[in-house]
Amino acid sequence: MLTRATLALVTLLAGLAAARAEPPELHLHQSYIEEALRATTLDVADPMAIFAYVIDSLPERVKVYPTENYFYFTFTHNGSPYAGNIRLDASDRDQGKVQFGYYEQISDWRQEPPGEFRVFDEKDGVKLEKVERFLYRVSYRGKSVLFELNDLSQAKPPAGALAPRETFIGPVFDDSAIRFFLIFNAAANNFLYILDETVRVADELEVVLNNDRILLGKRTGFVFYQDRRANRKILVGVYEDNVLINNYLDGPFDQLPDNFIEGETLREAILKVQPNLKGQIDRFGGTPDGQMRYMIGTYMVYKHIEDFRSLDRCANRRHAPEAAYYRCFILDRHPQDLSVRPPMPTRPANVPKRGGTEPPAAPQ
User: Fold this and answer.
1) By three-state DSSP, how is residue 55 classified?
2) Which pTM was predicted?
3) Alpha-carbon distance 224 to 216, whole Å?
4) 147, 98 Cβ separation under 8 angstroms
5) DSSP state of 357
6) For residues 90 and 133, is the Cβ–Cβ distance under 8 A?
7) d(C-alpha 160, C-alpha 83), whole Å
8) Is the CA virtual torsion 308, 351, 333, 258 positive or negative?
9) Are 316 and 340 in contact (CB under 8 A)?
10) Which end of the chain has fewer CB atoms surrounding its CB within 10 Å, N or C?
């Protein structure tokens, strides 16, 4: 039984949490207009000039949220929007390598704009130092910035969130600000992204298709299915237009849990799905030259929410074996394999442009 003192403490803590909540940030159309109208000077053809501009513009310390360690930025130069990233890749950052890319932003009407990509190190005057496990210092031309990586080492699926034949690969913090658990499901012999609900979900999920198991994120466009056999929500859809322009809402395929993969766990799981990749990939699922990486995008790239009616019919079959049931959620109809994963925004070749085909039926 709770004592009065305990109840008072709980009430106080709840009050403090409520007091810390702040009103939403206001964004002005005026600011957008003035940025578009501003005349600027910047040599966008020179990657070193852009790198210097970015580093000089940053505060002394920044936070890198996505788990593939991309630090994203955007800017507008003489009315044209640009985007890019500094990446501290888990595979080579401890060798002093800093990956850097930028490009004219993709849009529905302009999907292949020009861009640049470089890997910098001390020979380019760029110094990368490891301060702590999740803290690195990048220095260039007298300016240093601390990059704090996202420490999710304690993030684990709660009790009841894993099916009997599943392995937890690692936590994912997507650039959409949604957190997932990457799971390997041995019954379906493939991967699943499970919504991490141990923290506040940075979206509002609404019921769609008059089905309380199919949930749509109002902000992200992500579609989840409330699992019938475990207490969790499975990512089953990402909106096609976001994939085509490679924005922050294009799905978690490019934010794997690099900092938290234990030993050979990921590689061994990939080789169960694609045995032909033996000897071709490292423990992160990438090729030795870093140009390609195994694509984990088992969800549907959808255009219409009605595409998920067939998924529910598949998952609603009674007495389906475990393997048949979980194969209902493997919705990428293209064979998963190595795909080009550069920091430039290009749609991976094996992401289907349109989903909506019937999931496999459970064996009778």
Assistant:
1) helix
2) 0.88
3) 7
4) no
5) P
6) no
7) 40
8) negative
9) no
10) N
CA 174 – CA 53 distance, rounded (Å): 26
Q: How far apart are CA 298 and CA 330, in angstroms?
A: 5
The β-bridge partners of 190 are: 185
Structure tokens at 36: 């578009």
Residue 102: which of 160, 164, 45 has the closest Cα?
45
Per-residue pLDDT of the chain (364 residues), as tens digits, is 555 655 555 555 555 555 578 999 999 999 999 999 999 999 999 999 999 999 999 999 999 999 999 999 999 999 999 999 999 999 999 999 999 999 999 988 888 888 999 999 999 999 999 999 999 999 999 999 999 999 999 999 999 899 999 999 999 999 999 999 999 999 999 999 999 999 999 999 999 999 999 999 999 999 999 999 999 999 999 999 999 999 999 999 999 999 999 999 999 999 999 999 999 999 999 988 878 899 999 999 999 999 999 999 999 998 999 999 999 999 975 555 666 554 444 333 333 333 333 444 433 3
Place of tokens 């009790």: 159
Asked whether the CA dihedral 329, 330, 332, 333 is positive or negative, the reply is: negative
Q: Which residues of 95-119 are buried (b: 16+ CB within 10 A; e: fewer)?
A: ebbbbbbbbbbbeeeeeebebbbbe
Question: What value does the CA radius of gyration of the chain take, rounded to a whole number of Å?
Answer: 22
